[in-house]
Design a protein that fits this description.
Rossmann fold, single chain, globular, 35% helix, alpha/beta
């Protein structure tokens, strides 16, 4: 991982007006991070935290209300038309639902050939056919799958086709939105190993989105933790998953089951209290304070800044910042 970041998000905001109420829903509230070349950045959080919405903003499936997206140093936040098509060649999305993401009326070959035709890749029809076979081989599917329809395949096979479709345009960055959450547990590891192999062989950069911190740490170099549209922690995967600074990250880590059944049975886990607040009416101060076991008066009134408390490790927490300040560490 050298040189300038391949992808940069700066203060991304996505606001939806709620008709007839005068209220607004902030799906993303000032999201900023970088993705280095060859890196996998994991984004984790509960349902409704804004992680999938952030992914859709990155690939320009939705327009950010404000903020900036850079791809290899180029501002692609507001590009349109052919320029946007060129952006989509460089950054692709793999969807969560492998069945819903494929056209049920098209065979696998037709699905992949359509992408090649739109982007004018692989030459004539014979060249596109050869490229389809190459793509199927890359994702571990036999030649015969080219003539199958989505309903003739399993979820794991459909997701492999979705991955092949994303790779067809030879992107630099792939955003993976919960790519294994809809698959059987027995298939999840196969797809994860496939993604790891493709990343290394093709020198790809990933943004890996999931609600499962255990899954994210399996593949990520760094991890972003989101809550109610905000980043509450960001840092190296081992530090974030094993030594979290934010109480919300600690709760996510405790929710990951241990591989040893005896140790797991003996664990005492204090689950998060309450529910995720309404994003149209977020709490004042720190948005996590109604559920936080460490919340203090300042947490109810002041929104904490995302501070670097350890080298490369940031957290937005008044309590953590004060503890580091008392220990003589800069916050």
């Amino acid at each position: 991982m050298t040189g300038s970041p391949i992808l940069r998000a700066e203060d991304l905001v996505k606001v939806y007006p709620i008709r007839g109420t005068g209220q607004e829903l902030r799906a993303a509230a000032g999201v900023s991070f970088t993705l280095d070349r060859g890196e996998t950045l994991g984004i984790v959080g509960e349902s409704g935290c804004g992680k999938s919405k952030t992914g859709r903003l990155l690939v320009r499936l939705e327009e950010p209300t404000s903020g900036r997206i850079e791809l290899a140093g180029e501002d692609v936040t507001r590009v349109r038309g052919r320029a946007l098509r060129a952006v989509h060649r460089r950054i692709q999305l793999v969807f969560q639902d492998p069945f819903a993401s494929l056209n049920p009326r098209l065979t696998v070959a037709q699905t992949l050939e359509e992408v090649l035709r739109v982007y004018q890749l692989a030459g004539d029809k014979a060249g596109r056919r050869r490229r389809v076979q190459e793509l199927l081989g890359m994702v571990g599917l036999r030649t015969g799958f080219a003539e199958r329809y989505p309903h003739q395949m399993s979820g794991g096979q459909c997701q492999r086709v979705g991955i092949a479709r994303a790779l067809a345009v030879e992107p630099q960055v792939v955003v993976l939105d919960e790519p294994v959450s809809a698959l059987d547990v027995s298939v999840q590891s196969e797809v994860m190993n496939l993604l790891t192999r493709l990343r290394d062989e093709l020198e790809l950069s990933y943004v890996f989105i999931s609600h499962d911190l255990g899954m994210v740490r399996h593949i990520s170099d760094r991890i972003v933790v989101m809550y109610l549209g905000r980043i509450v922690e960001l840092g190296p995967w081992r530090a974030v998953s094993d030594e979290p600074l934010h109480p919300y990250t600690r709760a996510l880590q405790e929710a990951v089951p241990l591989a040893d059944p005896d140790l797991e049975a003996g664990r005492e886990i204090e689950p998060l209290r309450g529910e995720v607040p309404d994003p149209a009416n977020p709490p004042s101060g720190c948005v996590f304070h109604p559920r936080c076991p460490l919340a203090e008066d300042v947490c109810r009134t002041e929104d904490p800044a995302l501070l670097e408390l350890l080298p490369g490790h940031q957290a937005a927490c008044h309590v953590a910042a004060r503890e580091f300040a008392r220990a003589g560490r800069p916050a």
